[in-house]
Specification:
One of its GO terms (biological process) is glutathione metabolic process. This is Glutathione S-transferase. This protein is an alpha+beta fold. The protein has two domains: 101 residues, Glutaredoxin, CATH 3.40.30; 113 residues, Glutathione S-transferase Yfyf (Class Pi), Chain A, domain 2 (Up-down Bundle), CATH 1.20.1050.10. The longest helix is centred in the middle third of the chain and has 26 residues. It is globular. The relative contact order is 0.14.
Length: 237
């Protein structure tokens, strides 16, 4: 049986991404963070070769752009080492594809399914927050923070995520002692909304969500994430 070196084992334990792909990626999206930010964070964490491809004329591009199955963005455009091009839409699908490609999950099928369920819960929180922000009438925009903080289903989901993290020993990881794509997406959730005007620390804080904050702190120390957050690749909002 082949032995795993201490250095290799340490990298796995620390949740470093596999660099097992030579593909190049583009993220087709508006010049903003939005839903594409979660994809960008996963790509950054995975040390992938990627860049943004901005929407310039959406009225035309949503019908003329190859691969936009549902006339929605983001879209991942992958060019493989052999020159083949793959186009993929739907944020969750893109993230799961990248997680598998860069080995950001588990090698165990059941544990991978568990991670997928955690991801779905987090993404449901993200969707609820986006609905509040982007579906509120213009004349009622000042009520967004109040409506978010009154959303009991949102509070229940966040509480459930806290319990999941508690069941893993409140160690700042969703599974074991390794950062996965779920941890990265959770970081993105907190990073996007912990500074949202009117919400700030009312939704996520060391007092209210100590386990999620531990995840946030772990991922924020990752060298690739730190570099991305300071780079020109990141949009201001």
């Amino acid at each position: 049986m082949q032995k795993v070196s201490n250095n290799k084992r340490q990298k796995v334990d620390e949740g470093e991404a596999s660099d097992a792909t030579n593909s190049k990626f583009e993220i087709f999206y508006f010049p903003m963070q939005g839903r594409a930010e979660y994809v960008r964070l996963v790509l950054a964490f995975a040390k992938a070769d990627w860049e943004s491809k901005n929407v310039e004329d959406w009225a035309k591009e949503k019908t003329s752009t190859k691969g936009l199955l549902f006339k929605q963005v983001p879209m991942l455009i992958e060019t493989t080492a052999s020159g083949d091009e793959h186009r993929l839409v739907q944020t969750g699908t893109i993230i799961r594809y990248l997680a598998k490609k860069f080995k950001l999950g588990s090698e165990d099928n059941f544990k991978n399914a568990l991670l997928d369920s955690y991801f779905e819960g987090i993404y449901e929180i993200i969707n609820k927050l986006f609905v509040h922000i982007f579906s509120t009438k213009k004349e009622e925009k000042d009520k967004i923070p109040e409506n978010i903080l009154k959303d009991e289903s949102l509070k229940s989901l966040i509480s459930s995520i806290e319990e999941i993290l508690k069941s893993n020993g409140s160690n700042g990881y969703f599974m074991g002692k390794k950062s996965t794509y779920v941890d990265v997406v959770a970081f993105g959730l907190i990073d996007s909304f912990i500074k949202f005007p009117g919400i700030e620390d009312k939704l996520f804080s060391k007092e209210k969500t100590p386990n999620l904050i531990k995840v946030y702190e772990h991922i924020s120390k990752n060298p690739e994430i730190k570099a991305y957050l300071k780079s020109d690749k990141r949009f201001a909002n």
